[in-house]
Amino acid sequence: MNPLPLLRAELRRAPRTAAALVLLVSLAVALAVGVVAFERALRRGSTDAAAPFDLLVGAAGSPTQMVLTSVYLQPAQLPPLDGTSWSKLTRRPDVAGASPLIISDTWRGYPVVGTTSTMVTRLTRSTAGVPAFKAADEAIVGADVPLDVGAAFQSAHGTEGPDHTTLPYHVIKRLPPLGTPYDRAIIVPVESVWMLHGFGNGHSDAAALGAPWDETPPPVSALVISPRQTADAFRIRADARKDGMVAAFPAEELTRLYSLLGQARDAARDVSLGAALLVALAALVAAAVHLNAAASRLALLRALGAPRSYVLLAAWSLGAGLLSTGAILGLPLGLLLVLGARAAAASAWGLHLPFEIGTAELGVAFGAAVAGALLAFLPAISAYRRAP
Amino acid sequence: MSSDRPSSAPERSPGQTLSVQNLRLTRREPDGSARVLLDVERFDLAAGGRLALAGASGAGKTTLLSLLGGLERADEGSIKWDGFDLARASSAQRDRWRRRNVGIVFQEFRLIDELDAVENVLLPTRFDRWRTTAESRAFADKMLGALGVPMNRPVATLSRGERQRCAIARAVLGKPKIIIADEPTASLDSESGAQVGALLTALADDLGATMIVATHDGGLAARMDKTVRVQHGRLAF
């Protein structure tokens, strides 16, 4: 049996209707594919960004906000963590390393992060080619910051405040792309930020940079701690919390966020699949109306000797072909949507999300195609039964 | 293709012999009563014979053709073509029998407008095969060429005469043993009607097919062996 000549005739009879149907189904499936793929990419991208941050400690407040500001550089004023508290933490024997973070100033919207050379090494996951700060006026810029090596600039107070005038920075290094929000960061010695805000430099030596600091250094936004052992991390977190501080594993906070994100993903996916189903049902109604109108054509087939099974095959293959084609086209269309969302994420959050086709997206598209093929049996069986 | 009529029906086999007995078809009316559409006591047609059905519109000609072609099944009686009783056959059996034995020509051509002439002619070959055989394709080309039908134009662009000739080519593609035509010249002008009538009988001659035609066209009826009038579902010989 070969229903192709009939399919060709039906497509020639109503090419715009067929194209509109395929487009509607593909858009609906593309939404579902896009939601699933983007959520996974966001999850992976955000996990990669949080990798250099083992344990974060800050002043009492929201741990989620601390993670969002410290890891993803989302603009928000974190409550200052006083020097005595964080200095005490850095001197614990179970702490292998600690880097203070101050995230308050900006340059033309790019966040200026006060920290240490050690933290830069952790962010880049390599010591190769990363120079240590030798002076307070040095800056290392992320790959997306439009400042060349040697360029001088003044940071501004906060996100919209006036420029600081006392300490012009100059760029000593541009980092390679990290694929994290720190690609948009300007990293400077933490001492320089203290000095700009009138706190001194945290050392008895006016030219010193990095650990160790005085016993009562100036406040910071947060402290990134590398524990010696995994068990140490939990102990440090418990002690910090006991002392009235907020301590969080970014990975744990992300898990909580992922749970919410996952629920949102599931809801969005279900809504988009529901939309696809509604489109498919609308298509079936259209197919039923069309088959009613084509009753004389079906009668002709039977008069010419076509078995009922041929009528069934012809009616089914038309519906299944249109619905399945739309569903399969939804896959590349959905991935195009993800590319667009990726670009938006990179621009808005500095997150360079990974892009790949997963089994979930393939499952959505091919599942929709199979569902379309099954749904197409409904009008086909109706035509089969009504065939004279 | 010959336009000469054969001298006698028996020599025109492999057409099939028709034997109808006590044929009855009724329809249930909305008020619950039964209306008799056809009531035929008996009639026979020899293999290769030609029969014209005449009669007023609504007399039952098309209904009788539907029963003879196995498109519908009678409530009572028998319709035997070479002994195969359509009245007792299942729908699938009638489909298979019709596909192998019958070519049907309709008053309004019943072509698929979006396909070209060749695709229309070859359509029945797709019912049980994926690919058309080279033999069928060659036959379709030859037939359409002989009938003067443009092969690769959508049939919607053809004249009515060309369309009916295309429909006739489709009907005879499978070299049917039986040709059933329902008012094949009714929607044509007199000249085209005469051409189509001559063509149909000539093709039936070539195939040796048994032929039954419902027609108001006296010229076409004159080409048949005999004419039977259908009146209120009954045959008047």
UniProtKB/TrEMBL annotation, chain A:
Transmembrane segments: 271-289, 310-343, 363-384
PANTHER family (alphabetical): ABC TRANSPORTER PERMEASE (PTHR43738:SF2), ABC TRANSPORTER, MEMBRANE PROTEIN (PTHR43738)
Lineage: Bacteria, Pseudomonadati, Pseudomonadota, Alphaproteobacteria, Rhodospirillales
InterPro entries: ABC-4/HrtB_transporter
Protein name per the record: Membrane protein
Keywords: Membrane, Transmembrane, Transmembrane helix
